[in-house]
Amino acid sequence: MAASAVASPRVHDFKVVLLGEGCVGKTSLVLRYVENKFNEKHESTLQASFLTKKLTIGNRRVNLSIWDTAGQERFHALGPIYYRDSNGAILTYDITDDDSFQKVKNWVKELKKMLGTDIMLTIIGNKTDLEKQRNVSVETAEQYAESVGATHFQTSAKLNRGVEEVFLDLSRRMIEQADKQDAEKRALSPSSRSTAAGNVVLLEETPAAPIKSGCC
Ligand SMILES: Nc1nc2c(ncn2[C@@H]2O[C@H](COP(=O)(O)OP(=O)(O)OP(=O)(O)O)[C@@H](O)[C@H]2O)c(=O)[nH]1
Ligand SMILES: [Mg+2]
């Protein structure tokens, strides 16, 4: 019984939220990732929509609940409903639109203020198929992402470039974060505290003798 419990892969349920200005391609990225579809027409998301995706990374199974939010400013105030309790956020800008990059910075500030470092951040420059119309340089975006502890990816939902990698990388980081939090919890649990206390006794015993003999 114990052997089968060890062999069964661990399952993680992660919530991921997509944020960013209207028309940058949030819905297109999710549709490409989950259903491998692309729609040339912009149909503004109202409030938010929800899709799920299962993936396996090594011996871990991951169930992603992906919340695709509305980019229109009139829906901004709804943000907390969707990013609260999220394990990861994908902040998207359109590489041809510098305003949409500034909007990403606003979202990062808000998320840091409200959620601290509990949430894993990924910044995406989408529409790389429109390279000739680029208005946000890769260096600027990468430097900014690094400065706020986010990873940065470039994608084209249209051509299916880089999309899978975004969700894979984010899932890996959310697993690492979950492992870290589990380890912290274990360290604080009463049973592990007694183990730690036992270690302290051992540590005190070993160096105590030579120090005493050296001083007196
Ligand atoms: N050229 C190009 N167009 C894209 C790409 N991704 C999305 N689009 C187009 O950009 C427009 C907006 O895409 P959406 O995915 O609806 O944008 P959104 O961010 O969900 O917009 P809101 O729901 O209003 O917040 C659509 O016309 C898409 O076809 C891309 O990678 N390249
Ligand atoms: Mg949308």
Automatic annotation (TrEMBL):
Top-level taxon: Eukaryota
Species of provenance: Ramazzottius varieornatus (Water bear)
Chief site of localization: membrane
Gene Ontology MF annotations: GTP binding; GTPase activity
Protein name, per record: Ras-related protein Rab-21
Stretches of the chain forming a coiled coil according to its record: none
GO cellular component, one term: endomembrane system
Membrane topology: Lipid-anchor
Protein family per UniProt: Belongs to the small GTPase superfamily. Rab family.
Lineage: Eukaryota, Metazoa, Ecdysozoa, Tardigrada, Eutardigrada
Statement: the UniProt record of this protein carries the keyword Zinc: no
Keywords in alphabetical order: GTP-binding, Lipoprotein, Membrane, Nucleotide-binding, Prenylation, Protein transport, Transport
Record's subcellular location: Endomembrane system
GO BP term, pick one: Rab protein signal transduction
GTP-binding listed as a keyword: yes
